């Protein structure tokens, strides 16, 4: 299992904001939704496009390539053309920073 990866200072990820961190080869999209932190793989399960390029609204992210939407809290695919959920990763707040890791 990999070590935790520092995403940014907690003060740099305010409600409604997002950031991308890399754990090895895995891009991870970390979001602050109303003070709760969530992380998913930054890769659409339709054609691997980066989800971080899309708009985040109402706890969902929309892939800019073909419009699939994912629930950022659960990873669930909400509409075609994506059908598989996006992997979720843990987030912790420690030492004034946000941390995540690919725990697969
Ligand atoms: S790559 Fe995301 S919807 Fe097609």
From TrEMBL:
<protein>
    <recommendedName>
        <fullName>Rieske domain-containing protein</fullName>
    </recommendedName>
</protein>
<dbReference type="InterPro" id="IPR036922">
    <property type="entry name" value="Rieske_2Fe-2S_sf"/>
</dbReference>
<dbReference type="InterPro" id="IPR017941">
    <property type="entry name" value="Rieske_2Fe-2S"/>
</dbReference>
<keyword id="KW-0479">Metal-binding</keyword>
<feature type="domain" description="Rieske">
    <location>
        <begin position="5"/>
        <end position="100"/>
    </location>
</feature>
<dbReference type="GO" id="GO:0051537">
    <property type="term" value="F:2 iron, 2 sulfur cluster binding"/>
</dbReference>
<keyword id="KW-0001">2Fe-2S</keyword>
<keyword id="KW-0411">Iron-sulfur</keyword>
<keyword id="KW-0408">Iron</keyword>
<dbReference type="Pfam" id="PF00355">
    <property type="entry name" value="Rieske"/>
</dbReference>
<dbReference type="GO" id="GO:0046872">
    <property type="term" value="F:metal ion binding"/>
</dbReference>
């Amino acid at each position: 299992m990999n070590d935790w990866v520092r995403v940014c200072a907690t003060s740099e990820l305010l409600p409604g904001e997002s950031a991308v961190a890399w754990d090895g080869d895995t891009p991870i999209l970390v979001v602050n939704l109303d003070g709760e932190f969530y992380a998913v793989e930054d890769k659409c399960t339709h054609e691997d496009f980066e989800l971080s390029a899309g708009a985040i609204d109402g706890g969902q992210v929309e892939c800019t390539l073909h419009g699939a939407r994912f629930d950022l809290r659960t990873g669930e695919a909400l509409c075609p053309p994506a059908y598989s959920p996006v992997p979720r990763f843990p987030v912790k707040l420690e030492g004034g920073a946000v941390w995540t890791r690919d725990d697969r």
